[in-house]
Amino acid sequence: MNSYFILWPNDWCKSLAQANDYGPLQVIYGGPHASVPSLGRIKVGDIIYPVSIKHDQLFILGRILVERITEAEAYLQEQSIARIGNYLWDESAPKLMKEQPELGHRIPRNCVDAAATGSGTCFKFDFQVPTAIVDSFLFGPKAGQEKGLSRDKTGKLSHVALQGHFRRLSTDSADLITNLMQQF
């Protein structure tokens, strides 16, 4: 089992809060774009933490234990979620969020090809990770190849550090998150 961070854009988090989507977290999508990266390495039994970065601070939004990975279209059909007309998801998502806000995070915000579903927590948009803990996190594709999060030239935590990939946490970092989530 591995644990991963995935960056959710602040505008998406704001849309979810405005739609009163506070969970539980049911799905994390994967796709071909940096804004919704591939689920390629994610496996059943893995844990995914959607996160956001606001004002140089890291926020954990929730957690999902992956129980199933399926094609996005199959999941969307099961949930009776469809695009509006011939619009792509990035155009349909804002319209669906207004027309059917109860769908919340189950609406893909961009092109998707896979869905990781499972047991998730509620959402919290204000669960800030202390800077000292963030600075101790290590990420990497394999044990022994992990590195900390990069910062910009001014020392601020950058979106670039987490954007475009599911970032695997080291075992020690995953343990830190597990302990931190007891306060979630």
How would you describe the overall organization of this protein?
- The protein has 184 residues and is of the alpha+beta class.
- The protein has one domain: ph1033 like fold.
- Helix content is 23%, strand content 21%.
- It has helices at 10-18, 72-78, 89-99, 131-136, 171-180; strands spanning 3-7, 27-30, 47-54, 57-60, 64-71, 114-120, 167-168.
- Strands 1, 2, 3, 4, 5, 6 and 7 form a seven-stranded mixed β-sheet that branches.
- A hairpin with a 2-residue loop joins strand 3 and strand 4.
- The longest helix is centred in the middle third of the chain and has 11 residues, at 89-99.
- The chain is globular, with a radius of gyration of 16 Å.
Features:
alpha+beta; 5 helices; seven-stranded mixed sheet; 7 strands; 23% helix; 184 residues
Q: What does this entry show, briefly?
A:
By secondary structure, the chain is of the alpha+beta class. It is built from 5 helices and 7 strands. Strands 1, 2, 3, 4, 5, 6 and 7 form a 7-stranded mixed sheet that branches.
Mean pLDDT across the residues is: 93
Number of strands: 7
The biggest beta sheet is recorded as: 7 strands, mixed
CATH topology, by name, is ph1033 like fold
User: What is the element string, with H for helices and E for strands?
Assistant: EHEEEEHHEHEH
Residues in helix, %: 10-25%
The count of helical stretches stands at: 5
Global morphology: globular
Number of domains: 1
Poorly predicted runs are none
Strand proportion, as a percent range, falls in 15-25%
Going by helix content, strand content and strand pairing, the class is alpha+beta
Question: From the structure provided, what is the oligomeric state, counting identical versus distinct chains?
Answer: single chain
What gyration radius follows from the Cα positions, in whole Å? 16 Å
The N- and C-terminal alpha carbons lie at a distance of 21 Å
CATH architecture: Roll
CATH class: Alpha Beta
